[in-house]
Design brief:
The complex is a heterodimer of chains A (406) and B (232).
Chain A lengths: L1 H9 L3 H39 L4 E5 L12 E2 L2 H8 L4 E16 L2 E10 L1 H8 L5 E4 L9 E5 H7 L6 E7 L5 E12 L4 H4 L2 E5 H7 L5 E2 L1 E6 L5 H11 L5 E5 H4 L1 H38 L2 H9 L4 H36 L2 E2 L2 H9 L5 E2 L5 H18 L1 H8 L3 H6 L1
Parallel strand pairs in A: 4-9, 6-8
Antiparallel strand pairs in A: 1-11, 1-12, 2-10, 3-4, 3-7, 3-11, 5-8, 6-9, 7-8, 13-14
Chain B lengths: L3 E12 L6 E12 L3 E5 L6 H8 L7 E6 L2 E2 L5 H11 E4 L11 H11 L4 H14 L15 H14 L4 E5 L7 H18 L2 E5 L3 H6 L2 E6 L2 E7 L4
Parallel strand pairs in B: 3-8, 3-9, 6-7, 7-8
Antiparallel strand pairs in B: 1-2, 1-4, 4-5, 9-10
Classes of the chains: A alpha+beta (406), B alpha/beta (232).
């Protein structure tokens, strides 16, 4: 009865209801597009960064992250690989041996990050081979050659086919020294990485460090970034937790997580202002609905309707108007995002250059994570409930005689 | 012997007591017995609507008490009073009595829904009531599709829905033409006679006054006369 009454009441003044619902519609649609766009950009940025560096998740020997030494490596474990790959949320795994060394060429010497990688696996994930700007990409895990960041090569004044000498600490305090032909140069978006990295086939790196079959980490790539925490917890249960530690990119790169958090705060403020503005429209409509029906509300109280039921009818009216706008806004948002998922925005001109310089794909993908729609619906629902409080309070204070005579 | 159904005992109502006091009703004693058909008359501002509202529990007296069917309604909490009205008193107001978005059937059934009456029983009762007021062919009409007289008849049907012992009507014929007013009064008189429902009208409509068996006249918030008469 109350639902029917509320539904019929909101259509008494069709124009006003449509205008109010339309304002909610546009607020929800804009908020969805805005969140979808920013989340899409963040997801793309995270994917690009983690695929070159940590992966979404990384598995180390327990204690490695606190003391990042080659002595805290672990032996390659096929059982671990199988355990990881059988999880449907895991798309790729990348075994790595990550060390630091001094790199020398001619009279120049520089501290570098030496990444022992499986070139084929890396290729699948981050298209490293497509970043080659001179020479060629390393082939296979035992190719006796290295690929350098373009920035590092420039600092060492080194070209393709020159010989790079690496000197570092090996496994169990042995010395690690070797020379390698520079097979190619890669241009990486992350400047830090571009100026410091040496990519080397995994077996060569293991041999150089006297750490045969040993790894510092296995990086894990996911089907969806949003599965990060779920997968982390699953892995912590499925692998030997006494032997390994599982860390997410957020723990390994807290500065990037904090940047996204800080940037998001600004977006939340913009969306907050948007909702604040439409709240006034909705509030005005609700107040009008009370004041113009005061006589009728008085009659209803007189014939035996409890005030709290009347306040509930008003609350339902508020929720109904809001949800009409909200649901149509969500549907329009889904259609909008669907369209741009099929036809992503390809950046052009200077913006494209900026993205590519930072090693980020110059395509804007819109995020279609269900959280975006759920959050907007919840915000509108909560707003409509909060806004109905004051009109509800007015009803609770209504004196039947005064209301009937109004 | 008929029982006292309404006992307004030494009732007073003062508006704006702290600023410019207006004594709308002063020390009024009125006893109305079950089955009476009473007109409360008097010039504008005499306090008849205020007294009627206090007798219906819509307004609180400044002093005195109102007892309806043995229950002192002036002592009831707001929620209990609303419940009491729902089950014991029917109201008919001057105009705009009905919920405009509901049909005649739904308007009458509304009170029964508030009483949680099962649907089948409710529908049966609503149809009976609308037949009683001669609107069986208008059950699905909304108030906007009914004439003023028809709307007041729906309001009477709604007032009767909860089988109250009393119906209070505040100027029910004020906005009606002669034919509609006569028709409405005939229905009320018939209900009074056949179902022993007590009717109390606040009115200055001569058509209502002539139908009443008892006329209480208020002047300046006090009972000036209280006479029995033979209705015409």
């Amino acid at each position: 009865m109350l639902l029917k009454l509320a539904w019929l009441n909101i259509w008494r003044n069709k124009r006003r209801t449509i205008i109010t619902a339309t304002s909610v519609f546009f607020a929800v649609l804009l908020a969805i597009i805005f969140r979808s766009l920013t989340d899409g950009v963040y997801d793309n940025m995270i994917h690009n960064v983690v695929s070159y560096s940590s992966g979404y998740l990384q598995i180390h020997q327990k204690g490695y992250w606190d003391e990042q030494s080659i002595d805290n490596t672990f032996e390659e474990d096929n059982q671990l690989y199988e355990e990881l790959l059988k999880n449907p949320k895991v798309t790729h795994i990348m075994p790595r041996l990550e060390t630091f060394a001094l790199a020398s060429y001619s009279e120049k010497t520089k501290g570098v990050l030496v990444l022992g990688i499986d070139p084929d696996k890396e290729k699948e994930v981050n298209n490293l081979h497509e970043k080659i700007v001179a020479g060629e990409y390393i082939e296979g895990i035992n190719d006796n050659a290295v690929v350098l960041g373009e920035g590092l090569a420039s600092q060492l004044k080194l070209k393709v086919n020159d010989t790079l000498v690496l000197l570092g600490q090996g496994y169990h305090a042995s010395s690690a020294a070797a020379k390698f032909r520079v097979k190619g140069l890669v241009k990486l978006g992350a400047i830090e990485l571009n100026n410091n990295v040496v990519y080397m086939p995994l077996q060569q790196s293991q041999a150089m460090h006297g750490a045969e079959n040993r790894l510092t980490s296995v990086s894990v790539m996911l089907d969806k970034a949003s599965n990060l925490e779920d997968l982390k917890h699953t892995l912590l249960k499925s692998i030997d937790a006494d032997k390994y530690e599982v860390m997410s990119w957020k723990e390994m790169m807290p500065e990037m997580d904090q940047f996204i958090e800080a940037d998001s705060t600004g977006h939340y403020i913009i969306i907050g202002v948007l909702y604040f503005i439409i709240s006034f429209g909705l509030f005005g409509t609700l107040l009008m609905m009370v004041f113009e029906r005061k006589h009728e509300l008085g009659i209803l109280i007189a014939i035996g309707m409890k005030k709290r039921l009347l306040a509930l009818v008003l609350l339902l009216e508020s929720i109904m108007i809001s949800l009409i706008g909200c649901f149509t806004g969500v549907i329009a948002g889904i259609l909008f995002i669907k369209w741009f998922t099929i036809h992503p925005i390809h950046l052009t001109g200077d913006l494209k250059q900026v993205y590519e310089d930072y090693g980020i794909e110059s395509i804007i993908y819109l995020s279609s994570h269900e959280k975006i729609f759920i959050v907007q619906t919840l915000i509108v629902l909560i707003l409509s409930i909060l806004l109905a409080f004051y009109p509800g309070y007015k009803v609770m204070k209504l004196k039947p005689v005064e209301a009937i005579n109004s | 012997m008929a029982q006292t159904i309404i006992d307004a005992h030494n009732v007073s109502k003062t508006f704006n007591p702290k600023t410019v006091p207006v004594h709308a009703v002063q020390n009024v004693h009125v006893h109305i017995e079950e089955g009476e058909f009473v007109a409360l008359v008097g010039p504008s501002g005499s306090g008849k609507s205020t007294l009627l509202n206090m007798m219906g529990g819509l307004d609180e007296p400044t002093a005195g008490s109102v007892i309806i069917d043995g229950v002192e309604i002036t002592e009831l909490s707001e929620n209990k009073l609303i419940d009491f009205r729902l089950h014991n008193i029917g109201f008919v107001f001057q105009s705009f009595n009905l919920i405009p978005v509901l049909t005649a059937k739904e308007n009458v059934g509304f009170v029964l829904q508030l009483q949680h009456m099962p649907k089948a029983e409710r529908e049966k009762r609503v149809l009976t009531l609308l037949e009683e007021v001669g609107l069986e062919d208008k059950i699905n009409s909304k108030p906007g599709e009914l004439s003023g007289g028809q709307q007041q008849r729906v309001a009477v049907a709604r007032a009767l829905a909860s089988k109250p012992k009393i119906i209070l009507a505040d100027e029910p014929t004020a906005n009606l033409d002669s034919k509609s007013a006569a028709n409405l009064l005939d229905i009320m008189a018939k209900l009074n006679k056949e179902e022993k429902i007590t009717f109390l009208f606040s009115t200055h409509d001569q058509r209502v006054i002539k139908k009443a068996r008892r006329v209480i006249t208020l002047v300046d918030g006090k009972v000036a006369s209280d006479v029995q008469q033979i209705p015409s």
